[in-house]
Amino acid sequence: MDDLDHRNLGVKLKLWHLQEDAPGMVFWHPRGYAVYRVLEDYVRRKMRRAGYAEVRTPQLLPQEFWGRSGHWDKFGEHMFRVDDGDLAMALKPMSCPCHVQIFNKGLRSWRELPIRYAEFGACHRNEPSGSLHGIMRTRAFEQDDAHVFCREQDVEGEVARFIALLDEVYCDLGFPDYEVALATRPAVRAGDDATWDLSEAKLGDAARQCGLAPQINPGEGAFYGPKLEFALRDRLGRSWQCGTVQLDGVLPQRLEASYVAPDGSRARPLMIHHAIFGSLSRMIAILLEHHGGVLPFWLSPDQVAVAPISKDQAAYSADVLAAFEDAGIRAVAYDGADTLSRRIVAAHEMAVPVMAIVGGREMRDGRVSLRERDGSQADVPLAEAVSRLRARARPGAFVAEALSPANAGS
Fold first, then answer.
1. Would you tell me which CATH number, out of the four given (3.20.20.140, 3.30.930.10, 2.160.20.60, 3.90.380.10), belongs to the domain 6-290?
2. What is the per-residue pLDDT across 151-163, written as a single tens digit (0 to 9) for each?
3. What's the number of CA atoms in the CB half-sphere (13 Å) around residue 291?
């Protein structure tokens, strides 16, 4: 592994660890979980503004339920089974059938549609040990999962809503360019040809109406429907398939989802599945390698390291730290016994983007010296330092700073 492989970076930056007796299971350390929560909370806000209601569904459900949805036939060998007496249970590999259960509670009217659910769904898949790869491919992971229950005439608008959301998120993360493919019906699939004809046509039309020209990936669709696949391209030219949007007429039928149509009859909704990241841990790995281990300020686990020159500034240094924290800036104290130069090196090794250095003059004048990773410094009043860093902490702000030559690598 090279120094910029996410598996090395995770250990070096004290973000997470993996261990042999728990293959494919990630132990998130405080710094790594800070990045995880920033991404999760960021997408949560985006989804809420886009009209999605967040839900939470169980991890363990009867095997019979997964049989009805079709997932046991398709993924059974990769599902973790748990026996509860005479009842066979299984850990969920994905959340979509669970969202149908929420939709099915109560009588739904066409006036309520579209109904949009979102979940950071914790999923488990018993991947072969040889396919595991750091935190990019694991056995336990969390998806930014969302599902829309809608009518046929809603499909284009809902797909457009998702693509606009995905485009905004990818730009904030430093991926303004991405490739799109339409994955069509696989050889082994559920549903009849008429359902697939409709789903493929609607999804392709929706993409083109959004100005996209997807290439065709024959036979690569999900077993229940076609999908649009969005692939990011990192600064090394590598392509990473992340986001997906899928149109599904199968699961609503298998799990008996229905709503009351305008004429009073019962009708089946269509179901749109989508995710922007796919897996939060995989997205973090991609971001780390894309940014050479130095994440943009808004994503950094520790955004500013507060370092007093001597113990004489300890009290003021604590005030500086508190001022940053009160402003929502992730600040950490670098106030150990080492020399200031050693503490600067230590912060640099942890990829902390900014040092806030406090000496006697800064304490006397209520100021702080902000030192960037490239060595540039600015001596400013504390209130201005807080304002500057708070502006940089907005999602997407200064997204290119981590890709500058001065910040690349360690």
1. 3.30.930.10
2. 999 999 999 999 9
3. 26
